[in-house]
Design brief:
mainly alpha; Endonuclease Iii, domain 2; Endonuclease III, domain 1; 2 domains; 11 helices; binds iron/sulfur cluster; iron; DNA binding
């Protein structure tokens, strides 16, 4: 995919959704951090249900520590891997109080030093809570980047680096959300909705599929 096509692809995604954002419910950087940690291998809908129970009771490092490990587990027990996630959140709350004055740090290394927070989570926090033009590559973005030819790569880090290089600056802040939403609702893993896809004419996978169909038709003629 060349630069003009990439620009066109983001112009189309922007036209369809001018102000994209996360589907996780949150009101503060700390709430977002907890929601993102909970969202590993869980749906945003499931996380929102759990945080709707948790946040009215406890939505700061101190109040979650007061709730305690068992209280936290009880609030999030509907989410997969809740035991490990609860332990990580409790440890994270302690570190935030001890090292960061109970605030979520706006710093990649400090974020990645928190239990349960990897590169992807740090990217989401930096982008969505602090407005930095990072791109967190999850399974949806990895798939869309490879299928479309936008930023092909063998692993998530390779795709992230390529996206940061090739996504035009004006789209970088929101690229993360546009690509996730496109992957979640249109370019789905098992049955991509190519006939209604707004970027089908720009997509490498679609181009390959149509030239394959044309070749088969001429072979069968
Ligand atoms: S045309 Fe199909 S494969 Fe390409 S981006 Fe759209 S949905 Fe995905």
């Amino acid at each position: 995919m060349n630069n003009d096509t990439r620009r066109l692809l983001f112009e189309r995604l922007r036209a369809a959704n001018p102000a994209p954002t996360t589907e996780l419910n949150y009101a503060t950087p700390f709430e977002l951090l907890v929601a993102v940690v909970l969202s590993a291998q869980a749906t945003d809908k499931g996380v929102n249900k759990a945080t709707a129970r948790l946040f009215p009771m406890a939505n700061t490092p101190r109040t979650i520590l007061e709730l305690g490990l068992d209280g936290l587990k009880e609030s999030i027990r509907t989410i997969g891997l809740y035991n490990t996630k609860a332990e990580n959140i409790i440890k994270t709350c302690r570190l935030l109080i001890e090292r960061h004055g109970s605030e979520v740090p706006r710093d990649r290394a400090a974020l990645e030093a928190l239990p349960g927070v990897g590169r992807k989570t740090a990217n989401v926090i930096l982008n969505t809570a602090f407005g930095e033009p990072t791109i967190a590559v999850d399974t949806h973005i990895f798939r869309v980047s490879n299928r479309t030819g936008l930023a092909p790569g063998k692993n998530v880090l390779e795709v992230e680096r390529r996206l940061l290089k090739v996504v035009p600056r004006e789209f970088r802040q929101d690229a993360h959300h546009w690509l996730i939403l496109h992957g979640r609702y249109v370019c789905t893993a098992r049955a991509p909705k190519c006939p209604v896809c707004p970027v089908a004419d720009l997509c490498d996978a679609q181009r390959r599929a149509s030239s394959h169909r044309t070749r088969n038709r001429s072979l069968n003629a």
